[in-house]
Write a structure and sequence with these properties.
Elements (H helix, E strand, L loop, with lengths): L2 E5 L3 E2 L5 E8 L10 E6 L6 E6 L5 E3 L7 E6 L4 E6 L8 E7 L2 E2 L3 E5 L2
Parallel strand pairs: 2-11
Antiparallel strand pairs: 1-3, 3-8, 4-5, 4-9, 5-6, 7-8, 9-10, 9-11
Length: 113
Amino acid sequence: QVQLQESGPGLVNPSQTLSLTCTISGASIKADNYHWKWIRRPPGKGLEWLATITSSDTIYYNPSLKSRTSVSRDTAKNQLTLQLSSVTPEDTAVYYCMGNHYWGQGTQVTVSS
């Protein structure tokens, strides 16, 4: 069974960079049949797609966030990473990683001073 676990700081100061890690078990992050994604849900709002990284390392970003977003794979650790720079309180959300139809439980990130 594929399991994903997000981790990172729960509180980030405005203007700083948010860094999250998704640890994957039950599947290789290099597997040909998996696409890995970061998604978030701001309070009171719907899901927002942030980025997708494919098995061939092609990366797609949400155009509205592309200038601030960076994702990568650590194949040695079987982890997916997300960095979001210059955060504001509007980046407060529950952040999820997912692989195909598998979801992590999400991690709450609050941007506040």
